[in-house]
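Section: Multi-chain targets

For targets with more than one molecule, the full set of components is provided together so that the structure can be written out for the assembly as a whole rather than chain by chain. Components appear in the order listed by the source. The example entry contains two components.
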Amino acid sequence: MATKTVSPVSAPAGGEVTLSKEEILRYSRHLIMPEVGMEGQLKLKRARVLLVGTGGLGAPLGLYLAAAGVGTLGIVDFDKVDFTNLQRQVAFGTSDVGRPKIEAAAERLGNLNPEIQIKSYETQLTSENALEIFRDYDIIVDGTDNFPTRYLVNDACVLLGKPNVYGSIFRFEGQASIFGYPDGPCYRCLYPEPPPPGLVPSCAEGGVLGVLPGIIGSIQAMETLKLILKTGEPLVGRLLLFDALGMKFRELKLRKNPDCPVCGTNPSITKLIDYAEFCGIRGEEAPAPQTSVPEITPRDLKARLDRGDDLYILDVREPHEYQICNIGGHLIPLGDLSRRVNELDSAREIVAHCRSGKRSAEAAEFLRKAGFKKIWNLKGGILAWSDEVDSSVPKY
Amino acid sequence: MAVKIMIPTPLRAYVEKKDSVELQAGTVGEALAALTSQFAELRKHLYADDGRLRSFVNVYLNDEDIRYLQKDKTQVNDGDTISIVPSIAGGATR
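Its structure, encoded as tokens over all components, is:
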């Protein structure tokens, strides 16, 4: 675990925290508000906040918390910046592509506010390191993008008694709340278990409108500041739902579940567990669906097409994906396949493909069960086709 | 009773892309049964094989979680809103 401190700062050991002349000027719009004032600004300076994830939610979180003068900001991430991040992860620029996110984020935040201390943890948060990392912080902010890390963050916060400022997004919709607050509910009170991997929406239904993490991340940043300042009504015991399409906020009541396995009266989880296993996932990716359909590599498919073999290319992606790029396949989205199966000729050899190979494996398995004998799945999908056969096909 | 069921984004694909469905029911359980008989594909996303509501799907009557009311048997009134709120993971999809 690489821990690096950028611009180590003042806070003399045991001494009183004060603001320099430069800081007073920098924070003047806070200082002239009675709800913040000098006292509040010093609270912010003394505060130690950990951001888990520096992606879509992490960008507004990091920027606003750094700008507001949160004295110690920890950031955890292990990813590198890629081109697909830039549509929403506004802490990064085009020149950051390929750099570790943690490095680019620390530089950006350090430039925004050199008065604060930024601690970088270039590592994946795990059951082994979470408690050790969390221990040094007052508030944990959950900007993760996956269930295993979300449950890990929740459980670690409950075990350490630290508030967990939660935000989550999907396409046009977001959720926010504060978990792990004294006597308040935790994420497991809301959702005892994650969805099994097979029921998580596929990449066809995924995606996120770029501004959405900006809105939800900003709400998390606001709640974090309120917790530090001890002002207003914290988003505890309430689940805020945001619908960007209808531009509506709704609020639902959240109750602490007395039977909650981690924060209930008789908790069964008293230490961190294996979250990949808990979420039914081994390793990074969800396991490929069990299939007995043979795979064909893009290179082999190209060779066979060049040879003039009679192959029927079946593209099971969505129409809007077909518009991005295609390899001339016949489009029948996976969801329509059972209804439109009669369009296919079982006497012909069929090669099913999608973006990365997961949906087409499902489609191929479905067709095999429906009695199709000569069916292949294109290994790695159109992404692999772009890598191995035709680089002019754009990746997305 | 006429109630409105709010459908979350991840499940709209199974209800002809609608964001809400209005129907008649006496209890929350009846409303969900009517919904899943109208849209059969939705059923496996809401209920596990044992017929129980999935643990990553919460159902609210107005702003209250039905787990803390009378669950499926919770009575509904004219004009009530039932919300289906599944867990979402995103911060971003990689």
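DSSP finds 15 helices and 14 strands in chain A.
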